[in-house]
UniProtKB/TrEMBL annotation:
PROSITE patterns (UniProt xref): BON, PROKAR_LIPOPROTEIN
Subcellular location: Periplasm
Protein name, entry field: Osmotically-inducible protein Y
Presence of the UniProt keyword Signal in the record: yes
GO CC, alphabetical: periplasmic space
InterPro entries for this protein: BON_dom, Lipoprotein_DolP, Transpt-assoc_nodulatn_dom_bac
Coiled coil: none
Provenance organism: Pigmentiphaga kullae
Organism ancestry: Bacteria, Pseudomonadati, Pseudomonadota, Betaproteobacteria, Burkholderiales
Primary site of residence: periplasm
Residues covered by the BON domain: 35-103
Length: 108
């Protein structure tokens, strides 16, 4: 192999490796993932601190600064409060509310 072939192969190899670190529409870069993980941790901590939200039953996931809340709450007011708490966390761009209100057992 000559020097030019090795140089071209090196550039292609570097571009391939670098491409693995960039974000796509459905995948995050390493930096985005770390930032989203920090946001998730902050939202969970804020929910635990909120006395009017049962944080145990609320799941938090973050993708590109959009927080998704899912799980079960006792009332619509609690769901609204969880969304409010999540929106107040630094770095959160938007909140998707997939919380469900627990149904009460049938009375006899």
């Amino acid at each position: 192999m000559n020097v030019r072939t090795l140089l071209v192969a090196g550039i292609i190899g570097t571009a391939t490796v670098m491409g693995g670190c960039t974000a796509t529409r459905t995948q995050q870069s390493a930096g985005e993932y770390a930032s989203d993980a920090a946001i998730t941790a902050k939202v969970k901590a804020a929910l635990v601190s909120a006395k009017d939200v049962s944080a145990v039953d609320v799941n938090v996931e973050t993708f590109r600064r959009t927080v998704q809340l899912s799980g079960f709450v006792n009332s619509q007011a609690e769901a609204a409060r969880a969304v409010e708490v999540a929106r107040g966390v630094e770095g959160v761009q938007s909140v998707r509310n997939d919380l469900r209100v627990k149904s009460s057992p049938p009375t006899r």
